[in-house]
Amino acid sequence: MKAENVNIHDLLPHRDPFLFVENMLSVNSEEIIGTKTFNEKDQWLKGSFPDAGIVPGMILVESMAQCGGAGIKLLGLAEGFFALTTIEHVRFFAPAEFDRKIKYIIQNLRISRGIIKQSGVAYMDELKLFEAAWMSVKAV
């Protein structure tokens, strides 16, 4: 399903400055695609690498997990609040730069009433930035 004109605030409990998803491009039971551009409103993140101008890696992983969660909620596959509990197999290949769109392509590995397991790859243009797998467990 195309995910145009989706209000991310309706899908996730996160709010600025900790909301790291902007757009959902498409969602289905196998794959979720979304984007985020870290820009001037995210300048506080530059404190991690003040002279490098790159987005911190753990913020990127959180962003991809939020994107996956938003897709699950949009599909109506899970109810309630889920918390990120494990992060596995994270491999970084290139730094993410501010003011460049990052696209997340996420695979749904397991979805149940209490557990969501996903993996994904992030790209900046055609450049592969990182890959990771994670699990979220229903908290409430």
Mean pLDDT across all amino acids: 93
Give the topology string: H per helix, E per strand. EEHEEEE
Structural class computed from helices and strand pairing: mainly beta
Please report the total strand number as a whole number: 6
Helical coverage, percent range? 10-25%
Count of runs of 4 or more consecutive helical residues: 1
Low-confidence stretches: none
Distance between the termini: 28 Å
Q: Report the major sheet.
A: 6 strands, antiparallel
Shape: globular
- Portion of residues in beta strands equals 35-45%
Radius of gyration: 14 Å
Main β-sheet, spatial strand arrangement:
1-2-4-5-6-3
Characterise this structure.
This protein is mainly β and 140 residues long. Helices cover 14% and strands 40% of the residues. The protein has one helix and six strands. The protein has a six-stranded antiparallel sheet, with helices on one face. A hairpin with a 2-residue loop joins strand 5 (115-124) and strand 6. The longest helix has 19 residues, at 57-75. It is globular and about 45 Å long. The mean pLDDT is 93.
Write the SSE topology:
Layout: E1 23-27, E2 31-37, H1 57-75, E3 82-92, E4 101-111, E5 115-124, E6 127-138
Antiparallel strand pairs: 1-2, 2-4, 3-6, 4-5, 5-6
